[in-house]
Amino acid sequence: MLASPKTPRWIKAEREGIHLPTTDWWIDPSRPAANALVTHGHADHARGGHGQVWATGATRDIIALRYGTLTGGRGLDYNEPLDIGDCITATFVPAGHVLGSAQILLERHGERIIVTGDYKRRPDPTCVPFQPTPCDILITEATFALPIFTHPPIEREIARLLAAREANPQRSLLIGAYALGKAQRVIAELRRAGYHETIWLHGAMVAMCELYERCGIELGPLAPVSEASRDVLKGQIIVCPPSSLNSAWARRLPDPINAMASGWMRVRQRAVQRNVELPLIISDHCDWNELTGTILELSPEETWITHGREDALLHWCALHQLRARALDLVGREEDDTG
After folding, report:
1. Secondary structure of residue 156 in the 3-state scheme
2. CA nearest to 122, candidates 282, 338, 279
3. Cβ contact 180:58 at 8 Å
4. C-alpha to C-alpha distance for 51 and 36, rounded to whole angstroms
5. Residue 184 in contact with residue 99, Cβ under 8 Å?
6. Which residues touch 238 (CB under 8 Å, ≥6 apart)?
7. How far, in Å, CA of 322 to CA of 297, rounded?
8. CA–CA–CA angle 73, 79, 81 (5° rounding)
9. At 69, is the pLDDT very low, low, confident or very high (cuts 50, 70, 90)?
10. What are 320-335's pLDDT values in tens digits?
11. Angstrom distance (rounded) from CA 179 to CA 337
């Protein structure tokens, strides 16, 4: 095992999040903090109750939609430095995960630390691409850090979805997709594949899609399911939260084909458990090859690994003579939204 370099005194991994103790700023804290730097709007990273929230403008808009108006802090542009005291500068760098998502680059006296938050390396028409950023310490997620997780091209999954619709003109096609990021990405990829008909939305999806469009992401014609009759919805594509796939709401639709867009659909048992007829392997996280490739590309002195398959990535780092350690953060959820 390689000896770990000395951890800079100005950063500490605590159970509640990444803490900058000399200034008492936090990154994605799981409890209310006076000053919070937030990587993106998903609920396991962005929570209510903070005194001041510093994030990209789009992420602040998402947090405001979910938790109410934000009064403290402000929105920052990508690559706009923020002085947070003790000679520490924080800069938001594109993460490619969802709208507004960012890595956070921390710099102090020449030391550079990247906190990735959640990120992906695949192209996505609904958010700014991941920006590789050299660093001394890389703090990376490990959601899909097992070799079995290799995400196929999204074009293949969208083609499978459209083929299922074409083969079943009397059935609706119901896609379970997380309301922030996944739903809009699936819609945008359907448009890119040439599908320009109305896409129908569960009521819980409407506000977030409207926010995306206000931010300049074109999603084409959308309408809530409540405006359509059962007959109108035959052969139509409907997007809903994953929790609604097998609900009483879904049973009112015309013989729906249950589909789900998630990286976890690579695991057949997960699809069976969720009664998913059409599993779509579409993820907003890196797969195994992208995680390991990112570590090799950035070549940090040390990698800190969090929320996911830490053991597998630690083992891979050891095999490649790379310094690494696992963090023990609370509140990072493993669910079916990957």
Report:
1. helix
2. 282
3. no
4. 8
5. yes
6. 172, 173, 174, 175, 199, 200, 201, 202, 225, 253, 256
7. 13
8. 55
9. confident
10. 999 999 998 876 555 5
11. 9
